Amino acid sequence: MSAQRSAHTQPLIELGAPTLGEPEKQALLEVIDSGWLTMGERVRRFEHEFARMHGAADAIAVSSATAALQLALAAHDIGPGHEVLVPSMTFVATASTVVHTGATPVFVDIAAPDLPHLDPADAKARLTPCTRAVMLMHYGGYGMDLPAWRAFTDTHGLLLVEDAAHSAGAAYPVGQHSAAAAFSFFTNKNMTTAEGGMVLVADEERRDRVRYLRAHGMTASTLDRDRGRAVGYDVLEPGHNFRIDELRGALGVVQLPRLPKWNARRRALTARYRAALAAELPQVTVPFAADHSTTAHLMAVLLPAGTDRTAVMAALRAAGVQSSVHYPPVHLFTAYRDSSGPLPRTEEFADRQLTLPLHPALSDADADTVVAALAAALRA
Q: How far is Cα 47 from Cα 168, in angstroms, rounded to an integer?
């Protein structure tokens, strides 16, 4: 939704907004004119270019990051009787994909309120003979210590998987120390194909398995058969319909080259927020050190303990500023309540966290307006 003005409302400063324009329109028109809409040559180009950007041998485009995670786990034989260590401070798909393999998610606390990443000490304490994997999540686009986590998983004979939904275009080595990394191109991400995801898989045989599992386990694609490159196909194992179409592939091709510039703008806005908050609202803190490597997907802040966050969000909305919470802890949802005991640091973070607007179309003046509105809301 675009920012709107009326006689009764202020201009809306949106939480997040995709960057879309003539290049995207032209790319979609070209797909329609081609007459080929399902997974084809544009998707393959998107895969190649995404892999190149992230220093990977290849990539597999799929219908969502959720599909990417599920395929990554399936291709590495995670299933019934297994446990996977996961964060609770994440979107619920991080845990639900484990459940859909038949395995059990085991929730791990964060390291600290200013470092909402999986805590290695708590992860070690939750290991059992059934533990098979650790799933990391780069919260807000802030990179985890991947070499350290690879050493942890190697020491304990575990698989390392990255939920890299916030990490497209990262400068940190996403996908280079893990068995697999899953990315999101949902509408609110740093680049978008509306819906869609990508998975990087280190092992070539496992990568091939992900590729055919995304399309019913078939050995030949619809495009191969249409172009005469295959006259039949086998089904190697039961798979899924997790394919991505040419329309989304075309969007990815035109969005990807601009991703580094967009991420840089997000980092610049984050730095401006940090400076303004330190000057005007020192009681409001920003997680992570200022020099922490990031794609700056989220502008997360921590309100003072005891703040009525609902009232603050309502005051921001009245001032024309959208806000949100990332995330309600997964282990407190009804479906997962019996999967873990208390996670005190996660719960403290969740009680105080607030997400402010952050996207490339935001101006410096907009960021200043957001901080001023937050200051007024806290005073009230």
A: 13
pTM: 0.93
| Chosen domain end from 206, 232, 258 | 258
The verdict on 331 and 185 lying in the same domain is no
Would you please indicate which residues are annotated as catalytic (active-site) residues?
Answer: 189
Q: Rounded mean pLDDT of 54-80?
A: 98
C-alpha separations of 258 from 66, 125, 186 in Å: 24, 42, 16
pLDDT at position 316 over 80: yes
Domain extent for 31? 22-258
Q: How confident is the model at residue 234 (pLDDT cuts 50, 70, 90)?
A: confident
11 versus 18: the higher-pLDDT residue is: 18
Alpha helices in 284-363 (DSSP H): 309-318, 344-352
**Residue 17 phi, psi (nearest 5):** -150, 130
Residues 212 and 315 in one domain: no
Q: How many whole angstroms separate alpha carbon 55 and alpha carbon 24? A: 25
Residue 83 is inside which H or E element, if any? strand 83-87
Looking at the chain, the whole-number percentage of residues with pLDDT higher than 70 is 94
Whether 53 and 164 map to the same domain: the answer is yes
Domain count, the chain: 2
Give the residue-averaged pLDDT of 243-248: 96
The CATH number of the domain holding residue 342 is 3.90.1150.10
Where do we find the tokens 């969740």?
Answer: 350
